[in-house]
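Please fill in the sequence for the structure shown.

STRUCTURE ENCODING:
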């Protein structure tokens, strides 16, 4: 069953490579992010894409968040994060392509733990993308409680886009 408004966000472990302002071209050591520790007491905008560098994710989804991240933070978001099924190094490289620095945290759910816990994992084998991919979605989490969930039911970006999230902040 998929997560819904009012549910507690699951306690899972994701990975990321921190942005280093002193050495922005470097790729640092991966770090773990424990969702309950990182999200407790915060308002978090989390958007998920099936894969970094894929057409819809790169042309429609990510650019809208890059443009609106400051507005989201001014409306109360403490953290804006993107998650995908790619590994943390790919996510870091994708973030570099968009110059997100530390404005958008680029998270990896390479093992599918989060997608499975949310009930938002999909099988990508038919598209040669591997057995576990995240569905395209966005959510707002306020002190671990889900207050908005937008899961795309068709190709494209509507309910998971930055404009839809901004309307709910």
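FILLED IN BY: designer on duty
SEQUENCE:
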């Amino acid at each position: 069953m998929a997560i819904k408004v009012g549910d507690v966000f699951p306690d899972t472990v994701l990975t990321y490579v921190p942005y280093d302002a002193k050495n922005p071209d470097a790729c640092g050591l991966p770090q773990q992010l424990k969702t309950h520790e990182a999200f407790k007491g915060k308002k978090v905008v989390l958007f998920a894409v099936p894969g970094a560098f894929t057409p819809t994710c790169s042309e429609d989804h990510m650019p809208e968040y890059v443009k609106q991240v400051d507005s989201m933070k001014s409306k109360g978001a403490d953290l804006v994060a993107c998650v995908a099924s790619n590994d943390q190094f790919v996510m870091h490289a994708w973030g570099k392509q968009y110059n997100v620095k530390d404005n958008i945290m680029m998270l990896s759910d390479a093992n599918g733990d989060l997608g499975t816990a949310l009930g938002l994992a999909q099988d990508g084998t038919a598209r040669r993308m591997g057995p576990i991919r995240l569905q395209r979605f966005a959510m707002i989490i306020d002190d671990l409680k889900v207050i908005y969930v937008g899961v795309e039911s068709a190709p494209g970006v509507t309910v998971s886009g930055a404009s839809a999230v901004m309307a709910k902040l």
